[in-house]
């Protein structure tokens, strides 16, 4: 694992056990200096990234680009993805979080290269908890940031909230070579503060998610997609905009399912 700087397993394990509001750790200078520099330099420009991946533009996610196809990654990012998926690193995370049999996601569902442009945002949420087609339970998120010279006034902090989204326990700036890993559960509410960087800058990160075949202890048997919540100061969004967005997504899903069902019954 020459991609990484030295990782103190016992220190991370102790940090995770005492963490609040849910198990997590934050480590600076996570990657070896050469690796971090190579990944940073290899990030595609924002406008190029828009052609390589998916762009989100909704009430909850705005001006965020996601590239999940590893075949489109520049070599340094391919190497990073492989390192985050190797058995040695998976065993390290299993030990630190006490989650046996962790699996990497070859398809990088929801992960990969992330970029958020000026005036972008990602509201507070808990992530989807299950991939039904592959019978995988989502257990951990890892985020590594590649933003040199990032200024505090540009926002873009990742926030960790309590289960009722009343208190923000941590707010981490997305500074260069900072890594955050946290347990995915029904209470792991997190979000990104509005990004107010110049148009010539974007917030860059690499994300990966880890799974188990075994269900976690908190599994209720019900799968769900991403669940968004309004912050305490977002009264209008919580009362009107988010419910409207949710209704639109639900309608689109119904129409999509209806079209698929119709194709199955109509003669070709």
Gross CATH architecture of the largest domain: Sandwich
Using the coordinates above, name the CATH class of the largest domain: Mainly Beta
- List the secondary-structure elements in sequence, H or E: HEHHEEHHEEEEEEEEEEH
Largest sheet: 13 strands, antiparallel
State the share of residues found in helices, binned by percent.
25-40%
Return Rg in Å. Answer: 19 Å
Q: Return the CATH topology of the largest domain.
A: Jelly Rolls
CATH superfamily of the largest domain: q2cbj1_9rhob like domain
Summed up, the helix count is 6
Give a count of the beta strands, DSSP E runs of length 2 or more. Answer: 13
Secondary-structure-based class equals alpha+beta
Number of domains: 2
What does this structure look like?
The chain has 268 residues and is an alpha+beta fold. The protein has 2 domains: 9-230, Sandwich (Jelly Rolls); 234-268. 29% of the residues lie in helices and 27% in strands. It contains 6 helices and 13 strands. The protein has helices spanning 9-17, 33-42, 46-52, 75-85, 87-97, 235-265; strands spanning 24-27, 54-57, 61-67, 103-104, 112-126, 130-131, 136-145, 158-161, 168-172, 179-183, 190-192, 203-212, 227-228. Strands 1, 2, 3, 4, 5, 6, 7, 8, 9, 10, 11, 12 and 13 form a 13-stranded antiparallel beta sheet that branches. Helix 1 (9-17) packs across helix 5 (87-97) and helix 2 (33-42) packs across helix 4 (75-85). The model has no long low-confidence stretch (mean pLDDT 91).
């Amino acid at each position: 694992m020459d991609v990484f700087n030295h990782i103190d397993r016992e220190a991370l394990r102790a940090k995770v056990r005492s963490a609040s509001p849910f198990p997590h750790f934050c480590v600076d200078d996570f990657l070896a200096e050469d690796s971090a520099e190579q990944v940073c330099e290899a990030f595609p420009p924002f406008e190029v990234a828009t052609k390589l991946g998916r762009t989100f533009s909704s009430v909850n996610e705005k001006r965020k680009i996601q590239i999940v196809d590893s075949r489109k990654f520049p070599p340094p990012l391919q190497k990073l993805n492989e390192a985050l998926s190797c058995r040695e690193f998976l065993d390290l995370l299993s030990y630190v979080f006490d989650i046996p049999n962790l699996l990497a996601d070859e398809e990088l569902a929801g992960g990969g290269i992330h970029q958020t442009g000026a005036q972008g945002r990602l509201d507070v949420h808990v992530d989807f908890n299950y991939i039904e087609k592959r019978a995988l339970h989502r257990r951990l998120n890892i985020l590594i940031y590649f933003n040199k010279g990032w200024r505090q006034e540009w926002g873009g902090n990742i926030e960790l909230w309590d289960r009722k989204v009343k208190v923000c326990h941590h707010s981490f700036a997305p500074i260069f070579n900072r890594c955050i890993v946290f347990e995915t559960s029904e209470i792991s509410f997190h979000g990104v503060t509005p990004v107010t960087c110049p148009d010539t800058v974007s917030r860059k990160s690499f994300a990966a998610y880890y799974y188990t075949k075994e269900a976690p202890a908190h599994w209720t048997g019900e799968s769900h997609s991403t669940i968004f919540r309004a912050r305490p100061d977002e009264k209008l969004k919580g009362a009107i905009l988010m419910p409207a967005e949710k209704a639109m997504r639900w309608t689109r899903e119904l129409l999509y399912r209806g079209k698929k069902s119709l194709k199955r019954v109509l003669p070709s």
